[in-house]
Amino acid sequence: MPGRAKSRVNDFVIRLANVNGTGSASANGLLMKVIFRMGIPVMGKNFFPSNIQGLPTWYEIRVTKDSNLARSGEIDIMVAMNAETYQQDLKSLSPGGVLIYDSTWPRNSVLTRQDVTILGVPLAKICNERFSDARTRILMKNMAYLGTLAALLDLDRQVIKNLVEETFSSKQALIQANIEAIDLGASYAQEHFKCPLPTRVKSLDKTAGHIMIDGNTAAGLGCVYAGATVGAWYPITPSTSLMDSFKSFSERFRVDPKTGERNYCVVQAEDELAAIGIVLGASWNGARAFTPTSGPGISLMSEFIGFAYFAELPAVLFDVQRVGPSTGMPTRTQQGDILIAAYASHGDTRHVLLFPANPKECFELAVKAFDLADRLQTPVIVMLDLDIGMNDWMSEALEWNEDYRPDRGKVLGAKELEETESFYRYLDLDGDGIPYRTYPGASAKGAYFVRGSGHNKYGGYTEDEDEYQEVVDRLKRKWDTAVKLVPEPVIKMRKSAKLGIVSVGSCDYAVLEAMDRLARKGIHLNYLRVKAFPFGDKVAKFLNQHERIFVVEQNRDAQLKSLLLLETDYSKARMESILSYSGVPIDCRCIIEAIEGHVAKEVAA
Amino acid sequence: MPGRAKSRVNDFVIRLANVNGTGSASANGLLMKVIFRMGIPVMGKNFFPSNIQGLPTWYEIRVTKDSNLARSGEIDIMVAMNAETYQQDLKSLSPGGVLIYDSTWPRNSVLTRQDVTILGVPLAKICNERFSDARTRILMKNMAYLGTLAALLDLDRQVIKNLVEETFSSKQALIQANIEAIDLGASYAQEHFKCPLPTRVKSLDKTAGHIMIDGNTAAGLGCVYAGATVGAWYPITPSTSLMDSFKSFSERFRVDPKTGERNYCVVQAEDELAAIGIVLGASWNGARAFTPTSGPGISLMSEFIGFAYFAELPAVLFDVQRVGPSTGMPTRTQQGDILIAAYASHGDTRHVLLFPANPKECFELAVKAFDLADRLQTPVIVMLDLDIGMNDWMSEALEWNEDYRPDRGKVLGAKELEETESFYRYLDLDGDGIPYRTYPGASAKGAYFVRGSGHNKYGGYTEDEDEYQEVVDRLKRKWDTAVKLVPEPVIKMRKSAKLGIVSVGSCDYAVLEAMDRLARKGIHLNYLRVKAFPFGDKVAKFLNQHERIFVVEQNRDAQLKSLLLLETDYSKARMESILSYSGVPIDCRCIIEAIEGHVAKEVAA
Amino acid sequence: MTSITKPQIIHEGMARNALGLTIRDYEGRMSTLCAGCGHDSVTSAIVQSFFELSVPPHSVAKLSGIGCSSKTPAYFLSAAHGFNAVHGRMPSIATGANAANRELSLIGISGDGDSLSIGLGQFAHAVRRNLNMLYIIENNGVYGLTKGQFSASADVGTKAKKGEVNEQQPIDPVQMAMALGGTFVARSFSGDKEQLIPLIKAGIRHNGFALIDVLSPCVTFNDHEDSTKSYAYTRQFFHPAMHADFVPPAEEIKTAYDEGEVMTIELHDGSRILLRKISKDYSLNNRGAAIDYIRSHHRKGEIVTGLLYIDESEPDMHAINQTTKTPLNDLPFDKLCPGGEALETLQQRFR
Amino acid sequence: MTSITKPQIIHEGMARNALGLTIRDYEGRMSTLCAGCGHDSVTSAIVQSFFELSVPPHSVAKLSGIGCSSKTPAYFLSAAHGFNAVHGRMPSIATGANAANRELSLIGISGDGDSLSIGLGQFAHAVRRNLNMLYIIENNGVYGLTKGQFSASADVGTKAKKGEVNEQQPIDPVQMAMALGGTFVARSFSGDKEQLIPLIKAGIRHNGFALIDVLSPCVTFNDHEDSTKSYAYTRQFFHPAMHADFVPPAEEIKTAYDEGEVMTIELHDGSRILLRKISKDYSLNNRGAAIDYIRSHHRKGEIVTGLLYIDESEPDMHAINQTTKTPLNDLPFDKLCPGGEALETLQQRFR
Ligand SMILES: Cc1ncc(C[n+]2csc(CCOP(=O)(O)OP(=O)(O)O)c2C)c(N)n1
Ligand SMILES: Cc1ncc(C[n+]2csc(CCOP(=O)(O)OP(=O)(O)O)c2C)c(N)n1
Ligand code: SF4
Ligand code: SF4
Ligand SMILES: [Mg+2]
Ligand SMILES: [Mg+2]
Questions:
Q1: Looking at the domain assignment, is residue D146 inside a domain?
Q2: What is the ipTM, given to two decimal places?
Q3: Nearest residue CA, atom 1 of ligand 4?
């Protein structure tokens, strides 16, 4: 084999280049799951176009015995199934890598490289000979390259077989065809190439207690577990599958088997302005309600978000961020809505944000979001991104504490109302800035007007300056209460490091990998990952413990850093941004480079 | 007279308490105009309810020989025409003040104060005796108290007469009635009280070269002068009169007298989402287009604002700010939209803001806004507030430079296109981050797609990370160009002051008055008023020249200070906020207090 | 939403309804609208209707958007919760409220600006969902609260107070609702309580979306001579096509009708609507014909009023969704949360 | 808006239109829609229509919102400027474009999601303004681009690919436009170019808002057996009521018709539409009857198509506004700016 062949057992990246709408996604998912079931930690990223059929799409799988679950930036094996992108795919392969392509059609001889191994498998030919139906041929080609990979990488054939059987358990007829196609691809490889490759897998036991799940599915499940009953939404990539998850789990767990009646109500709204309105109408009435959306939806919802802040209505929003501004790149990932989510809407407003970094946290923070929204009577926005939301992640298994009871916050029911002399909506009786609320229909005594116009502490309409100010000042005090209630950051301290990293959400694994690699080079860093806004004391303390803070995030304008600047007292001069915002999930290289660069400068200075 | 009577010639505040919908606003405006025409600087603030008829409304006039055109916080003369608010009005009068009320109905004897003078005039009775029609009686009562004030304050009767004649020049019949009513009120005063009061006016010559105008009228006129042809809007207080102004001046100057054809098109849109869309559609086609709105409109427009940022379309917005959050207090003033306007919309976006501080600047910055929008190909938001927009201000007269020609920015016409080899929309040919654009219909060669989705520098659709990033990086460079083009701040330096004030918009006169008063107490400050965002070097320089900066603004959350923090390197620890956000225009007292407090602390420390 | 507290004075011997409540119990705060505003008459018709129907006030929730009309929920049913949404977005709030608690009786008050301009989309989709609520548009052809600009319901040729003539065709909520499949479509006039009150009662009891477009003149900005939405004009060109009488459950039908003259429609709660044709050539069962009838009369300057369409059989939002009968906000947590064991099991799929 | 450049190959002897252009000059980039998508057929009908009308491609501007349908403007008229707005907001962009340059020929392409859900308000108000543009809805009953959720035009009882049945009544843009006073209302089918092309031509030439609702099946998410928006279903239940022939100015009317059979409508530019009834009981002049006809056929599962309503005499937005004939973007600055002296004078008022 040409080039400096790498022998990397359980530590390499496969990239699969396909055409969308050809069923490749499920084959690639299967491949990843096989590796996972072999006990080897694995990461998968899907790069798909904003289109339904016929355009280039890539799937990247990192096999990573050390659980480095971010992208590495390298590509060791390229499965180049798309003639359109062949040239580009060949180019992006790392030196020493292996490229597999469909040799049914000869490739252009100019398109070659000396430093990589190119393996041709006549996949279409094999499949066309074996299968007659056109659609089947297309689908089976995917299985055939899976078979080839099985041979080349030494995948466990029994695991594959089991998985295929599970996957198609409801369509028995397909099992046989799929397995046959896999065999065809495998046999060809075994006959023509030396199998397995030096770059290959070997069973481990490092995935026990874990699952492979995407963040949207986990978050939707979290809504079910939190007891949400009303979901309103308008479809938008990459948030759609969150509602799909809520719907399908609700169908499973919340439908009366006898009557078919549903203990939930999902409203597909006419747009995002309506979706958030439905959520507010429902939470006004004491249902836990939520809406999943993405950036454009947040923009459209901002009038109502400000309303909810001022009228003090709970609401849970999921912003599965995609690349902005505007329509941007709907199928690429970014963390570009942080600032707008924090201060959405005109006037003096500020909103509680939660930042999960993986599917398990999506589940947990979804539940937490409802508790916080109810307790604080304000919108809570859970900030996912396309990477967490739509990619399958290896995640610790989800757990449920049976003792959990929803915190519905300060609600007076009919009985409590009867016992109180009089009820006023916006009094701060407990000194925490949080007033008491009541639900419509409960009792005449609890009746009041929800309004976004000026109101006094009794809930009455006002245009009086003092009465108005009293209310917005209390809202600010409520924010101080929020600081105490939101989840604390995740902190990883190494002894005596003077440099700190602050990051958020899906940057997590890239940061961890960078820290490891830097540590090996003698550069030690501490790490804080914010899980919520407002930040709270722990964040301030961490910042102040460090001479320099690197803020790692996935947007152009350093939005997390901006929030840190605005909401802590840490000096701007001591913060440095590390930004990755091209739309592909961050990998550790930019972090390492930036920090090494900084250290080198320090040494030179 | 009881209390310590004040003798304040040309330096006092009159407050008039009325019921809205009774025609008092025009009487009060007349009163102010009379004082203005007598050559005495004067300030007027209207406090009106968000309602059409029957609720309390106040008008405050400050007669201020030293041109302190902000509120003073004192009330020296109260005209208490509203029985509903009589108690409150009496209470708010400053010690030594004078209260005038309608003694047709006896006032409650408990409602009295020893330290003020109370003058009863049977206004209703006088008017009812003289006029028969019910509506006329109501209207003439206003004129009658104006007459009483004329006598008490020694207003120039000829000036009043002239003004009445001008005002009703199209309704001759009304002139006589009005003058009669004024005479009735005046005569009563002369017969029953010692006229004039020690607190009174005396002609000066300090208003030459000035006009009395509200900011919305001036801004609407600016749009006419800038050559705007398309205006789109959805009515919202307090921005409505801006479009009224554009419409009426356009009717006057832009209608072909022969054909009746209009050289402009005002579209009353169905909502704000449509209004901004219409603006974008029009500027795409090379018309100068604008929309006036207020906070809720900005929230609703934010999706399209982000679109315009990313697709690089000029657009001029006027945000006449009112009290937020949400519907808030539509008829009260605030500067609460600064942060949201700067970063409106999801994703990495930032927008050029202009901050007029008075009607003259409203006119000038309206024109400037169009030039900047065209030059920078981006939305420009002119940030007024209710106080500037709807109150009549004494302002330097507007001037027009006949040499002005609109800067339409980088536009290639049919001819230029023919001469170039090929046209690509988003190339940075000049290194300033600004690409060239073309108008539809001009030439096939200039054709391209405007889109909010990912595009490359050629204008083509892209989902490629490098192509995308290239464009957003250039957008950031364009921002650096914006810094150089926006208006510079207004700076007032006193020698060797270590304390600085930074403020914005309608805070201006309150800051100036505070500075004067503090200077008299030996506390000297420098002052910078930002006129635009991004801020630019002069702002940074000013900040750095000072040990401490007080940021004076009218919102709860220190939004200008936030922008300064984010966009300059000045240290947070050295900035102190002075905030006024209850909805009434700021007066100098809070500024003086805060700064004196600070100085006292420093001394004590 | 400005409002002033109104002293509640209950005279002895005041009429009491089946719940023992007097009409005072159905009133709200003092109106702050202009004296003579049509909206105040609608308010009093609403008060009267709820009183006569003996609805427990706290079982109602009243909603609105922004506008003079949208202020009015403050002026009736003090004991009911209220929601004053942002401009044009009340229908979505109502949708959520109904989703969470299907037992609440919802009444929404909107204006022609609120529903036909900024809120047109939400209005139309509430019709489409057949959301169970009474939706009243207090239609005056102008934006009252922002001082008299033409709204989308202004007629071609009508003149503004300041002289401007409208040349754009109006949007008629009644025709819209007809075309969108609305199940209860009515029009009335704030000046005609006799017609309005039975319509309100029927609308409250209708199972689905009940629209009443009430012409409600704006005395301050649109009551002058050349306005087609003034009291004088409306009164003159008012053209009742169908008369509706509302008869509560169990109550006898008192008036005697000629055979064939009256059509009885039974509502879900057992109450009935007695429909009587006033205009012979109006047919109640035909949306297209209704639109035609309305348009042709509109061309003559006439305003067709009455209960113009009703269909009690269409499923409402919950029927379509197959929601449980228990209000969702009343379901105990253990019915909602699948619990730890289920979580274990379902994760098999992800291993 | 994904697109791939298409090689422009012009054969010798290809047909050329009055401008000497071939059909290639009216094409756009290569489509990236699913093979067989109805939208591609609409695209080619548009190409054909503009070619045959000999419209200079750069005198057109093409607009859309977001969706598969909204991608299609990239696939025709490469030489025309395009505007791909945010979701549902194309009508406002078109309004502004028309305001600024009344001479541009505007064609907007939208989807049923884009126009009937998020964009319903803007769509309705563009109809109301009688904005001078051709507006095509590529109607497939689903949100294609977000993978097949029901849209607001999904019929009651239609089944999604995954089995869900829609129970909400559809919003029909044709009925909406009729009720809103639309001046050109048509429906067609992407699979019937013979019907579609003359409609597109007439729509381009109509002075005002021309709506064509084109049933345009989504092969990927809504072309299965139980769908009422599939090719098979549409083809089977397609019910043409009116046939329209488009005859350009100066061209002779070639076909001979029986007397009374054909109605000729002259458009502003001198071209004519020859309207021929296919269904005897359809009447073209009556919006209400049209709605009725459509609804009654819809109940039978039939889809009424053709040019269903036209009124060429209504004023468009500029006529209502009395805008100058010169495009506003072409007015010289000195016609717009009143100048210094005027500023002096007008300030008298403020002294
Ligand atoms: C987003 C937004 N835009 C504009 C306004 C200003 N506004 C308040 S009420 C109103 C129109 C009200 O008209 P209508 O609904 O007909 O009510 P009416 O006052 O005539 O009863 C408008 C435009 C607002 N409150 N919010
Ligand atoms: C504000 C916003 N919300 C949601 C989306 C996601 N989205 C893109 S296209 C689409 C629906 C498209 O449906 P339709 O207009 O019928 O077009 P089709 O794809 O069926 O041709 C949606 C919901 C978006 N782009 N913007
Ligand atoms: S302005 Fe018109 S609509 Fe508003 S309260 Fe007055 S009369 Fe009624
Ligand atoms: S998903 Fe449907 S609408 Fe979209 S391109 Fe494919 S077939 Fe056409
Ligand atoms: Mg109205
Ligand atoms: Mg569709």
A1: yes
A2: 0.97
A3: D144
Going by C-beta distance under 8 Å and a sequence separation of 6 or more, which residues neighbour residue D136? D42, D46, D107, D108, D109, D110, D200, D203, D211, D212, D214
CA angle A419, A421, A427 (to 5 degrees): 110
**Chain C partners (3+ C-beta pairs within 8 A):** A, B, D
Domain hosting C194: range is 23-321
Tokens matching residue A510: 């890239």
Based on the fold, state whether residues A243 and A355 are members of the same structural domain.
Answer: yes
Task: Based on the fold, state whether residues B381 and B246 are members of the same structural domain.
Answer: yes
Q: Give CA–CA dist B275/B258, Å, rounded.
A: 31
> By C-alpha distance, which of B228, B269, B270 is closest to B245?
B228
| pLDDT tens digits for range B86-116 | 999 999 999 999 999 999 988 877 778 999 9
Please state the atom number of ligand 1 nearest to the C-alpha of residue C87.
26
Q: What residue numbers bound the domain in which A467 lies? A: 414-485
Compute the average pLDDT of residues B239-264. 97
Residue A274: give its domain's CATH number: 3.40.50.970
Residues whose CB is less than 8 angstroms from the CB of residue A163 and which lie 6 or more positions away in sequence, other chains included: A30, A33, A34, A37
Mind telling me how many Å the CA of A459 is from chain C's nearest CA? 11
Residue C105, domain CATH: 3.40.50.970
Q: At what angle do helices A134-153 and A24-37 cross, to 10 degrees?
A: 30
Residue D259 domain flag:
yes
Assigned domain for C330 exists = no
Residue B509 has pLDDT above 70, yes or no: yes
Q: Which atom of ligand 1 is nearest to the CA of C117?
A: 15
Query: How far, in Å, CA of A251 to CA of A249, rounded?
Result: 5
Q: Which atom of ligand 4 is nearest to the CA of D221?
A: 2
Q: What share of chain C is helix, strand, coil (3-state, %, to 5)?
A: 35, 20, 45
- In CATH, what number is assigned to the domain containing residue B533? 3.40.50.920
Residue at B125 is within a domain: yes
Burial (Cβ within 10 Å: 0-12, 13-18, ≥19) of residue C309: buried
**In this predicted structure, what is the pLDDT of residue C39?**
98
Percent of chain C clearing pLDDT 70 (strictly above): 97
Q: Confirm whether pTM is higher than 0.90.
A: yes
Q: Chain C residues within 8 A (CB-CB) of chain B?
A: 2, 32-35, 66, 68, 86-88, 117-118, 120, 143-147, 149-150, 152, 220
The answer to whether the CB of C28 is under 6 A from ligand 1 is no
Distance C321 CA to ligand 4 centre (A): 27
Q: How many whole angstroms separate alpha carbon A83 and alpha carbon A18? A: 9
Taking the CA of residue D95 and the nearest CA in chain B, the distance in Å comes to 6
Tell whether the model's pLDDT for residue A498 goes beyond 80.
Answer: yes
CA of D87 to the centre of ligand 2 (A): 6
Q: Which of A51, A234, A242 to mutate to test the pocket of ligand 2 (most atoms within 8 A of CB)?
A: A234
pLDDT digits (tens, 9 = 90+) for B563-601: 999 999 999 999 999 999 999 999 999 999 999 999 998
Are the C-beta atoms of A583 and A538 separated by less than 8 Å?
Answer: no
| Residue C347 in domain | no
- Give dist(CA B183, CA D34) in Å, integer: 83
| Residues on chain A touching B343 (C-beta within 8 angstroms) | 339-340, 343
Nearest C-alpha neighbor of A512 from the set A81, A66, A32, A28: A66
| A454: closest CA of chain C, how far (Å) | 9
State the amino acid at position D174 in one-letter form. V
Q: pLDDT at residue B1 above 50? A: no
- Residues B53 and B181 occupy one common structural domain: yes
In a domain, A208, yes or no: no
- Ligand 2, atom 23, lies closest to the CA of A235
Lowest mean pLDDT among A9-23, A173-187, C5-19: C5-19
Q: Which of B368-382, B447-461, C287-301 has the lowest mean pLDDT?
A: C287-301
Across B487-499, average pLDDT: 92
As for how many domains chain A has, the answer is 4
